[in-house]
Input
Amino acid sequence: MAAVGAGGAERPRLSLRWREAINFYLFLAPWILGFLAFTAIPIIASLFLGFTKYNAISPPDFVGLKNFRFLYDDQIFWKSLRVTLTYTVVFVPLQLVSSLLLAMLLNLRVPSMRTIRTIYYLPSILPTVVTGLVWIWLFNADFGLINFFLYKAFEIRGPNWLGSERWVMSAVIISGLWALGGGVIIFLAALQNVPGEFYEAAELDGANILHRFWHVTVPMISPVILYNLMIAMILSLQVFTRIYVLTQGGPNYASYFYNLYVYDNAFSYLKLGLASAQAWILFVLILLLTVLALRTSGRWVHYSGGV
Output
């Protein structure tokens, strides 16, 4: 009787565990299905298509490394890669410095600072297409507000920003600096977490404001600098919508970014296999740069409680 009683008590316990496990997987199932349908399966399919000739009409034809060999010999591919890397090398440092300086200003204790912070954050949540159209008007060579200001303030006739190979990259960079809100908010949170006693100790030691910034602020927020650096780098290499609205790659491929070429191959020319190969090349490039940033971060990133 004792054995039967023990077995009867064990069965409800096991059935309870099964019910908990079933409930757990049922709650998890929507995310798993969504991940498989919209992330995992498309990634695997893209990797496979990168080795095929596929136009979305006929079945994929396996061609091995032919797509990658074609890109290696393709001048437009290298042009788009060079444009993207040039933009990234120039834009990322400008964005980091501008975001940090703006965050330091927004960290000051002045009246209505919360309202001012909200105003500076708003551009980062506006739709990219809308802001792109606004910048087209601002950069207009004939009646744009920027050239109007240059003429009225300095009597300088502004350039054809979006129609000149010489100036189009400058216009793209300026339009990108418009939306600094995300990085500013992250820097602002980091600045507010720096203990005030560190600044007081540095001031007692005779450190001026620049020394306090370089020897106290920068080391304390260095993990956040690394984070913003990596996010800015990845987004710069993947930039598409704003460029498509502003220039569509012109003039003469001067702003023909990498993802514009991927888009054209995929949807304009229906070369989906070639576009998939391009996407994986970009993935590998971003992965290598990310690993490089992480490997070198040990020399300048300082974590509290760490070395």
In short: The chain is about 70% helix and 0% strand. The radius of gyration is 27 Å.
